[in-house]
């Protein structure tokens, strides 16, 4: 595996590969890699000739300075994992390399970016699109891989691809979970031992809500999830919305969408955890 720190070097490598008819798989990450990230790498490895993984904590998508400052940075361990996974190029640039000048672009993302994370974290998705569009321009991927834990983010990136006219495939990959059900996240390392014992109840409650939903209305199901998570003193639901999987717009009745997805954000102490679950379209 070769570590690349400059945009020019990355462009040379991918241009050479594409001239030889090779496909490029890109996995954008912010580092602090875990098995969830590696599952994306494995998928990219199977489907492409060359795999590029970016490791970059993007400052423009943080609307909380403390969140940016405390985001884990583990470059040496990340590189060991990427090399073991068979990555060809690890792109690990500096902030100055990615943003030689301020990125003032504003993306007209529309309604898909205005709810849930978009409402709670103003400017977050615009920052995501700034960095992802840059990575697409740098790496010129055939396919780019994203985890479904960030379900709304994938919808936003698909919208950005439409707006910018990128010629690539966005590949959404299933959530990777710990043995106890907790969705893998770089933020999990910030949980105390006690919090780590409580956190899997988010996934458990979402999973149990599938059965509850089979005999209850959408609104009843939504409230049931909120009440059950909030029953833990240590946890507080920031939002739980059941949305259409394509538009990300909240729905009030099961019949309003063919693909309902429940998206939740929960504060556990000062750690913000997200998860989601897909409902079948056979609810009452």
Query: How many helix segments?
Result: 11
Strand order of the largest sheet: 1-4-3-2-5-6
Q: What is the CATH domain class of the largest domain?
A: Alpha Beta
Number of domains: 2
Spell out the CATH superfamily of the largest domain.
HUPs
Helix percentage: 25-40%
Overall residue-averaged pLDDT value: 96
What does this structure look like?
The chain has 2 domains: 2-173, 3-Layer(aba) Sandwich (Rossmann fold); 186-277, 2-Layer Sandwich (Pantoate--beta-alanine Ligase, Chain: A,domain 2). Helix 7 (124-139) packs across helix 8. It is 40% helix and 19% strand. It is an alpha/beta fold and 284 residues long. Helix 8 (151-164) links the parallel strand 5 (143-147) and strand 6 (169-173).
Topology:
Elements: E1 2-4, H1 7-19, E2 24-29, H2 35-47, E3 50-55, H3 65-70, H4 75-84, E4 89-91, H5 95-98, H6 117-120, H7 124-139, E5 143-147, H8 151-164, E6 169-173, H9 193-198, H10 200-213, H11 218-230, E7 235-244, E8 260-268, E9 271-278
Parallel strand pairs: 1-4, 2-3, 2-5, 3-4, 5-6
Antiparallel strand pairs: 7-8, 8-9
Helix pairs in contact: 7-8, 10-11
For the structure shown, list the relevant keywords:
284 residues; Pantoate--beta-alanine Ligase, Chain: A,domain 2; three-stranded antiparallel β-sheet; globular
Brief digest:
The protein is an alpha/beta fold and about 280 residues long. Helices cover about 40% and strands about 20% of the residues.
